[in-house]
Amino acid sequence: MLTKRLAVLPLALAAAFGAQAASTTKYLIYTESGKQMGEQVVEQQDDGLTRVRFIYKNNGRGPELSEQFRVGADGTMTEYAVKGNSTFGAVVDERFARKGDQAEWKSTSEQGKKTVAGPAAYVPLNSSFEVISTAITALAAAPDNKLPLLPSGTLSQTRLDSLEITSAAGQKQTVQLLAQTGIGLSPSFMWATTGAKPRLFAVIIPGFMNALEEGWQNAIPELAKRQKAAESKMLADVATKLQHPLPGLTLVKNARVFDSEKATVGAPSDIYILRGRITSVQPAGSPARDAANTIDAGGRIVLPGLFDMHGHVDRWSGALNISAGVTSVRDMGNDNAQMQAMLDETTDGRLLGPQVVPAGFLEGESQYSANGGFVVKDLQGAKDAIDWYAQRGYPQLKIYNSFPKDILKDTVAYAHTRGMRVSGHVPAGLRAQQALDAGYDEIQHINQVLLNFFVKPDTETRNLNRFVLPAEKVADLDFNSKPVKDFVAQLAKKQIAIDPTMSAFAFLKQRDGDVNEPYADFAANMPPDVARGFSVGSMKIDGAEQLKRYEKSYGKMVDFVGVMYRAGVPIVAGTDDIAGFTLHSELALLVKAGLTPAQALQVATRNGARYTRTSNDRGSITPGKLADLVLVDGDPTKDIKDVRKVSAVITRGYVIYPGEIDTALGIAPFVKDAPTVAKTAAAVAEAGGGNDGARNRIEASARKHD
């Protein structure tokens, strides 16, 4: 579900407007490959009213909204209104007004009022890029380039770079790269015009999408290149501050090791680490010889590094994964060039993040196509793509919704000859059973599994039907019926792995105003603007009866994961949602499905390694394997919620403290104390005197490169 990333992006669309525009600016939105996916038209009226119309469609879905607003003398909005539908069809209806010092707002999920003096920028829950444009202008005029936000928070803006560009028609202008912090969990980057009143020029999201003024498309490559360089400086600084090297021999003493094969916790042990690998595991208190670094686990449970088996990695999500104890992520679809760059940066220690196991993304051409990886027309194109992935060590192929079904079996067979596992969505016009017959080794998402019992050859599953049908029909599905039992038996017999991503699909029963289930246990720790979005519904749900039905269907989806697990079907733990934190939610949902907490942890460790083919290196705390260790307060083998209490993470020869990452991102830490590293004098000298800080906010990193 690549476009779930758009849930945190301000996008909008409108129908036709009747008023005459004093000026019009048009933005076009493209995929990384250059295919147009939408547009935004900004009409500024003579009376000061701004209207926006925008459409964005990717992978069969996208927001369709209508927006209008006015700004005051300080450049912030004094009135604002937006209507339409969100990415998954939920109704959007939001208003804001400020008169003097009184501000009020109301949407389908919240309403509030506040007395405020001086400039303050309202942050809509759904909006167009033009709202960013107004913020750019207002921040440029604000003291220290900072603005208070409504309902809460502070927005900051930093200039990172400037560049003269030339349009296809030969026009020249200078644009500037800006970073805004204070909204979300990472900086937002945008290109703006220069001058006294700068406005938005372009938004570049590497590997995903580009939006910029019409006529300047030829500038995208250079803009992307310069933005990547600026981001890399910021990310390298973050990595340096938050990754504490462990040179020489490291002893983690008094650790209660989780045995991922037996799903049990052993007696206290001492774990020895050298050059990023486990060299020995001894009973606690065994004689130590010249350890350069000593970490006293203090009787904490130590888990093997957790796996998120369904990520779509970007350069800023790594810190969130590490802070949650996720040291390995299987990336299930990305821009190929972007993925290769991230793998290089992580290997070199310039990017704070987990070790990534990439799955090659393969899609077919249609109006519904997703646009990551390779989009192919025929078998030869599919084979060429598979060769590219195999030569770069991708252990798995992921097939997507529009892949040509007539070449599916031959494509799967060819991938198998190249030593790759094959998984994915079920191509339109087929059922999950037919994907198994074609040779699939794994299926992504619980909806793709259960659609097997509802679709016909002419059912369109590339649009919202793939969500609506399960939400409507799973409530009445009889798990004891012969078709269901036979299907589950075949999954077990063939050992077809299932990647259910239950956390991601909780949106099917989300009601406006309620915190969605996967976010409930960590919403209070999040920055207010992030937590605010957890109460926004995604699906269009008409009334209490439909809500009740969707809740029942989702509950049975969770139950079905338990049915499969007990039948011997391999389950893996993936998110396809907010990095790190929702893996913990996925584990809680596995427990809700009937697994014990220890079995859920086994799924996230042993099964993760097994189904990424990395068991030789990961998945257990065993001599010779990578020292990917997660020190946890409490006992997550008894209460799965304790898995959120990560006090320290060791990976790739570094110790990393989630509390430092959380503080840098404005997140309230989940633990109070972390185990410290006692170093010998020689180790301190080798590390260059240690690390001085690591608690500075990422925003400070942005300012450093102004």
Key phrases:
disordered N terminus; single chain; 15-stranded mixed beta sheet; disordered C terminus; Urease, subunit C, domain 1; 3 domains; 706 residues; alpha+beta; globular; ten-stranded mixed beta sheet
Summarize the amount of helix as a percent range.
25-40%
The parts where pLDDT drops under 50 for at least 5 residues are: 1-20, 689-706
The count of DSSP E runs of length 2 or more, i.e. the number of strands, is: 33
Number of H/I helices: 17
Number of domains: 3
Main sheet? 15 strands, mixed
CATH domain fold name of the largest domain: TIM Barrel
Gist of the model:
This protein is of the alpha+beta class and 706 residues long.
Q: What report would you give on this structure?
A:
The strands form four sheets. This protein has a 15-stranded mixed sheet, sandwiched between helices. Strands 16, 17, 18, 19, 20, 21, 30, 31, 32 and 33 form a ten-stranded mixed sheet that branches. Strands 22, 23, 24, 25, 26 and 27 form a six-stranded parallel sheet that branches. The longest helix has 24 residues, at 543-566. It has three domains: 2-242, no CATH class; 245-303 and 621-704, Urease, subunit C, domain 1; 306-610, TIM Barrel (Alpha-Beta Barrel), CATH 3.20.20. It contains 17 helices and 33 strands. Helix 9 (465-473) packs across helix 12 and helix 13 packs across helix 14. It is an alpha+beta fold and 706 residues long. Residues 1-20 and 689-706 have low confidence and may be disordered.
